[in-house]
């Protein structure tokens, strides 16, 4: 039965009061809703009911200049490059750094219209964990920037996933960083849930380090669901054409990760030791791998002085290189498997690795979220610092750093001698969000005139 416009508006306004009082943001899609958000079931990604395989490239034009820039804030360059994404036949790009203080609607809408998703690193060079001092760099200033990036991109339906870090552990001697990477992953998942966003997968991109890549995979998937990663990604350059599934060692990769309980994909691949013809594409999207891997991202779209570029960019001109043509042909020649490709529907946790000469983590406890950052769970992060902010790596102090450890899944904190606060593990009663409420009421009452005509 159709209600009067006044009763509808008043009813919705009452609902808005409850939403604002609960500290939940008003969620309005920021990009085209014709693209289906990607979800996780078991060890695979899904687009609706269909298995989704990442076919993509890493995208950071200008990344070789030494000056960090945001490629998806630049609408003209984004729209310049999308036709080449379409020619390649990709469905995903990975971007390593963005300016979280500016709007990205134009590019994200254009990507969505082309059927292209975004995997986004939430760190920048200034706002990231410092592997040489992870305790100091895990602070509320850093997390505010991470959360602000989530705020900027969470309501785009083509935001596929967030990366909580990239190659933080980059050799055999700095696995002591692992608890901080996992803590950031936990905090991002909690922030997404606390702010009422859809469930956007959060995971980590690991370096190609034989001593600890798989140990890190086990660590990121062990424990309780609140601290387990939603997926794991690896950077791998072991397939160098001409090669094969066995010669490259990818058969061993599949064997090592068989039974892994969350989605796994290659966040970087594409060895340049020899001419790249991308023979590995035929293996990556074949059932010999799809029961374990969900595709991957080729490094990288543009030539940045390191030899990996698929195209050369000069001003507004894009010139495809031979690698571009080889990859285009490889993607076109290898269809995805039918059905679920051998995916598992269950998501089993791994066993946490024990401390050893190759794994410098004593137990399963994580740093507690800094008290100064916990407030963002209810108030929101506010405006991000962008790419030119003062940075966070040296911003740690008694007020901004973590002051205790959080046991896996418990939500409780073991305080240190300097701790002056304890993480709440009870019901939180947030402040009323008058700003969100006023926005909703204004929108609802602007609708009333239209409703009166019905």
UniProtKB/TrEMBL annotation:
Locations listed in the record: Cell membrane
Q: What is its EC number?
A: 2.4.1.-
What's one GO MF term for it?
A: 1,3-beta-glucanosyltransferase activity
Q: How does it sit in the membrane?
A: Lipid-anchor; GPI-anchor
Task: Enumerate the InterPro entries for this protein.
Answer: GH (IPR017853), Glucanosyltransferase (IPR004886)
Give the keywords, sorted: Glycoprotein, GPI-anchor, Hydrolase, Lipoprotein, Membrane, Signal, Transferase
Q: Which residues form the signal peptide?
A: 1-21
Q: Where is this region: Disordered?
A: 337-361, 379-425
Task: Output the Gene Ontology cellular-component terms.
Answer: plasma membrane; side of membrane
Record-linked Gene3D superfamilies: Glycosidases (3.20.20.80)
Classification via Pfam families:
Glyco_hydro_72
Q: Where is the composition biased (Low complexity)?
A: 398-421
Q: What does this protein do?
A: Splits internally a 1,3-beta-glucan molecule and transfers the newly generated reducing end (the donor) to the non-reducing end of another 1,3-beta-glucan molecule (the acceptor) forming a 1,3-beta linkage, resulting in the elongation of 1,3-beta-glucan chains in the cell wall.
PANTHER family for this protein: 1,3-BETA-GLUCANOSYLTRANSFERASE GAS1 (PTHR31468), 1,3-BETA-GLUCANOSYLTRANSFERASE GAS5 (PTHR31468:SF5)
Q: Which family does it belong to?
A: Belongs to the glycosyl hydrolase 72 family.
What is the recorded name of this protein? 1,3-beta-glucanosyltransferase
What are the top taxonomic ranks of the organism? Eukaryota, Fungi, Dikarya, Ascomycota, Pezizomycotina
């Amino acid at each position: 039965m159709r209600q009067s416009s006044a009763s509808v508006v008043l009813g919705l306004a009452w609902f808005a009061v409850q939403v604002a009082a609960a500290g939940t943001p008003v969620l309005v899609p920021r990009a085209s809703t014709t693209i289906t958000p990607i979800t996780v079931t078991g060890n695979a990604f899904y687009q609706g009911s269909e298995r989704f395989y990442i076919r993509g490239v890493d995208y950071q034009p200008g990344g070789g200049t030494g000056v960090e820039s945001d490629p998806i804030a630049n609408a003209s360059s984004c729209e310049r490059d999308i036709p080449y994404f379409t020619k390649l036949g990709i469905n995903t790009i990975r971007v390593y750094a963005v300016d979280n203080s500016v709007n990205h609607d134009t590019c994200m809408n254009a990507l969505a219209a082309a059927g292209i998703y975004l995997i986004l690193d939430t760190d920048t060079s200034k706002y990231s964990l410092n592997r040489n001092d992870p305790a100091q760099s895990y602070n509320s200033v850093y997390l505010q920037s991470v959360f602000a990036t989530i705020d900027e991109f969470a309501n785009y339906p083509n935001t596929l996933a967030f990366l909580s870090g990239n190659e933080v552990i980059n050799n055999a001697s700095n696995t002591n960083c692992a608890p901080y990477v996992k803590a950031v992953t936990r905090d991002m998942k909690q922030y997404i849930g606390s702010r009422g966003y859809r469930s956007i997968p959060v995971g980590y991109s690991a370096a190609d380090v034989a001593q600890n890549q798989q140990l890190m995979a086990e660590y990121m998937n062990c424990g309780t669901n609140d601290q387990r990663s939603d997926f794991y990604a690896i950077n791998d350059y072991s397939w160098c054409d001409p090669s094969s599934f066995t010669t490259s060692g990818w058969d061993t990769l599949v064997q090592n990760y068989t039974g892994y309980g969350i989605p796994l994909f290659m966040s970087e691949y594409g060895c340049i030791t020899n001419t790249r013809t991308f023979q590995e594409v035929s293996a990556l999207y074949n059932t010999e791998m799809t029961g374990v891997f969900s595709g991957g991202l080729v490094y990288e779209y543009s030539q940045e002085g390191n030899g990996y570029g698929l195209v050369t960019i000069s001003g507004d001109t894009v010139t495809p290189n031979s690698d571009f043509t080889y990859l285009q042909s490889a993607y076109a020649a290898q269809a995805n498997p039918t059905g679920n490709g051998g995916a598992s529907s269950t998501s089993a946790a791994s066993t946490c690795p024990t401390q050893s000469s190759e794994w410098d983590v004593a137990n399963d406890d994580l740093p507690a979220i800094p008290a100064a950052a916990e407030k963002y769970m209810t108030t929101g992060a506010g405006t991000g610092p962008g790419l030119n902010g003062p940075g966070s790596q040296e911003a740690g102090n008694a007020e901004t750093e973590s002051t205790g450890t959080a046991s896996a899944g418990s939500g409780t904190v073991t305080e240190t001698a300097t701790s002056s606060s304890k993480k709440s593990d009870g019901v939180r009663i947030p402040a009323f969000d008058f700003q969100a409420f006023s926005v909703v009421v204004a929108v609802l009452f602007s609708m009333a005139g239209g409703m009166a005509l019905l």
